[in-house]
Each structure stands twice: as C-alpha cells, then as structure tokens.
Amino acid sequence: MKHILALDQGTTSSRAIVYDDQLRALASAQKEFTQHFPQPGWVEHDASEIWASVLATAREAIAKSGVSPGDIASIGITNQRETIVVWDRKSGEPVHRAIVWQDRRTGDYVSALREAGKEIFIQQRTGLLLDPYFSASKLHWILRQIPDGHARAASGDLAAGTVDSWMIFKLTGEHVTDVSNASRTMLMNIRTGRWDEDLLALFDIPRAILPKIVSNSGTLGVSDAALLGAALPVGSAIGDQQSALFGQLCTKPGLVKCTYGTGCFMLAFTGVDAISSSNRLLTTVAWKIGDGPMQYALEGSVFMGGASIQWLRDGLGIIKSAPEVNDLASRVADSGGVVLVPAFTGLGAPYWDPTARGTLLGLSRGTTAAHIARATLEGICFQVADLVSAMEKDSGRKIAVLRVDGGACASDLLMQTQADLLGLTVERPKNIETTALGAAMLAGLGSGVWPDIDSLVSIREVDRKFAPTITIKDRSARVKVWKKAVKRAQKWEL
Ligand code: ADP
Known about the structure:
The protein is an alpha/beta fold. The chain has a domain at 3-239: Nucleotidyltransferase, domain 5. It contains 17 helices and 22 strands. The strands form 7 sheets. It has a 7-stranded mixed beta sheet, sandwiched between helices. Strands 3-2-1-5-13 form a 5-stranded mixed beta sheet, with helices on both faces. A two-stranded antiparallel sheet has the order 4-7. The protein is globular and about 70 Å long. The mean pLDDT is 94. Adenosine-5'-diphosphate binds at residues 261-262, 306-307, 309-310, 322-323, 325-326, 406-408, 410-411, 414.
C-alpha cells in the first residue's frame, strides 16, 4: 500500500495527515504556534517554531497512523501564502522573523510605488494588485533591516522564500519554490514562470537570494532520512488556496471553489489562459504538473466571512458559539428588511475600498437578534455573489456550480442562502479538508500512486447539493437592496 503524508502549514497552526491510496485520512496531528504582533498592523512568525511544529506533527501523524515511514510514497506540502522567510544559507537559521501575509508595515513604501505610477506595470507582469499583502515589499523591508542585508543577499549568503520553500529547505536542503507560491511574491512574471528582472530591480532584490522555481508536482527533493525515519520524496508543494482548488478537483476551465473560513477565498480555474481582470480580481498560477503547461486561476476574497459570525459571538454576544448562529437565524423566515454589510476592515474585490466600514441598515422596532443573525449570513453570501459575478464578467463564462469547503460551509442555512442569492447550485463534498487533500493528490500524482487526474474523480464524494429556491425576480430585488447598502458602507473612513 502506498501512503501520502500531507503537511498543511497554516497561518495559526501546522497540521499533518497520513492518507491511504483511497485518500482516507488514517491519522492526523495539529500544533498551534506563536503569533507575534510587535506593533499595530505588524504580524510575524518565528520560522524555526514553524519548522519545529511541522516536524513534530509529521512525526506524530506517522506514529499514530501505524504506517511504516518506508511505506510513504511521498510528502505533499501546502502552506500559508505570501509570508516571507529569510535565512542564512550555511547555518540554515532564520536571520529575521518571518513577515506574515497579514502584515501592513510596508504600506507607505507601496503607496510610494503607486504614486510613482507602477501599479499597471506590476499588474501586467504579475496578475496582482499593488498591495503590502504580497511578499516583495516585505522582503525589501527585511533586507534593509538586517546589517549588510543587500550585500549578503547578493553574495548568496542569504536565502529567501515563502513557507513552502522554507519547509522544503529544512526537509531536503534544496532551495526551491513552487510556481503557485512564486506567483504570490510579486517578483515572478506570471506568463513565463520566471523571476522578472524588471521587478527584481524595482523592489531592489538580488536574484541570488531567491529559490529556483519548480512545478507543483513531481520530485521536488528527497527528505533527510534522519527526520522522518526514511528518505521520502517531496511530491508536491502548492499554496493553500490553489491546493483547495485542486482538492475540489476544479481541474476544468469554469470550475470554481469557495472556501468559507475566517475570510472567504474564491478561485475560478481558467486553464492555460491567464485572464487579466477588469474587476480587480487577481490572476494567479493555479498549478503546473510535471512538465505540463502552467495553468491559471482568477481569485477574489472576502475579508469577513466566518469572522462576521465570530463578531455576533464576541462583539454582540448574541450567540455563544459559531454553530449557534444557525438556530438563532432559523427563528425568523427572513431578515425583516435588515441588511448587514460586513465591511469591518474595508471591502475586498470587486470594490477594494479600505475606507468602507461595517453597516447595519433597515432596523425597525420589530428587529430582533434573529434578524441580525440572518442578515449576517446573507451579508457573507452577498459578498460571495459579488465575486461570482466579477468572475463571470472577467472570464466571459457563466458559472454553473459553486464547490464549497472551509469551516463555515458546515452550515446548511448558510449554503442554502448562498444558493438562493446566487441562483446557482452549491455543492459540498464529504471531505471539506480540501487544502490538505489537494497537496496529497498532487503528491500522489507526482510519485505514481495515481496515474492521472481522472483516476481521482471517483475518490471525490459529494455530501450535499443545495439548489436555489427563490425566483429570479426575488433574487434581483434582494441584490438591488444589497448594492444600495454597499454604497452606504463605502467611503466612510475618509
Ligand atoms: P480558518 O481556516 O480561517 O481558521 P475555518 O475553516 O476553521 O477557518 O472556519 C472557521 C470559521 O467558520 C469561523 O469563523 C466560524 O465562525 C465559522 N463556523 C464554524 N462552524 C460553523 C457552523 N457550524 N456554522 C456557521 N459558521 C461556522
């Protein structure tokens, strides 16, 4: 029997899962690690602590599974994206804390680039919108922070990479990164799949510090036998959202997934076409399998997804736990005219308005906590519906089904509301741990456990399909009210 070890390195915890060749999870382990907030808007991780948590969970999952390390065909890696690690190539030790994707410290630097008129050039080369979120400005910052940073980078003393690259380095000693993670650095040309000299010059990053860009599936390195009890090939590495897209088997153009976690992340697979967005979505590499072509996706995100439900719990105190939102919202047949625009931290695609703020409208003397709970679920779904319509406009293609995953997709009411407000079927798989699954599938493909993608289709099982139950007329009336509410939420913090 061939097994796969999936390593899912997230923003707050690291997880390891051992799968069998039918993608059944035999055992798993999870470990949280420290979040450092040295200043408002700054978020850092200790890369050594991340690596320790990865290694400990990998060992624990293997031990619990009872599988002999020699029976593991390969390791699949998926990770939090954009977070950047810089380490000393000789000692293998980080020289600075990792700067996490959420970190906003490079806001001024990025604004200066915008004022210098670089935004369109960057979007054309990378598919990304100019924002501190991506790795380039963070790496620029670190190299200025450490003594002789730039010179040490240029001489090859230092190595940099996103978390996939750091994990592969610690496992195998190789300095590589996969093309999906590289596409989030803002330093890679999205069409060639190579580091872009003009972008390296713009961000003043020496080429010598960067890893070699490799495919998402194949043999990316072989682990040191002393670490996990056997020398194991690294069969895949892929950013978390792209991994979930693959885990949902959205491998044909037009297939779309949405992950309902703290935020919501929607990706639409577009095949070999890197579609430039006119609606402020991101163009991103989905994956490259072995020697195959690069394949792409459009991406949009909602900042407050499940986090809106957490606000009902922690901010308003009208529920004690997130799942309770369903009972509370079910007490009323509709929101009674209440609309919540959950723009607590601004609005993402397609609005991109950092000055927007959360807005609760349509209150009356009859409004109850139940109406607000229902309006909160609807607010999540309306935002996702906005992403779907932006993706349809950009791709010129109607979306037929929305495949869903993430913690909040457990809510039947949320998923039914989503189907109603989209006018689309929403499809929830049995296994909603699609992030780890995608990396496991790609690792298995890379190491011969499965011959091709078609052989995986029979393994994916659907739990439930939610079909729309409201009329088109009703839906467009509600969307109209939502758009009106969004206008009220925008341009608030001026
Ligand atoms: P992340 O990976 O971003 O930490 P998860 O995928 O674990 O997030 O999802 C957690 C989110 O899902 C929380 O914000 C929580 O509010 C929401 N959530 C979890 N279970 C339910 C449920 N049964 N009904 C509604 N929301 C839920």
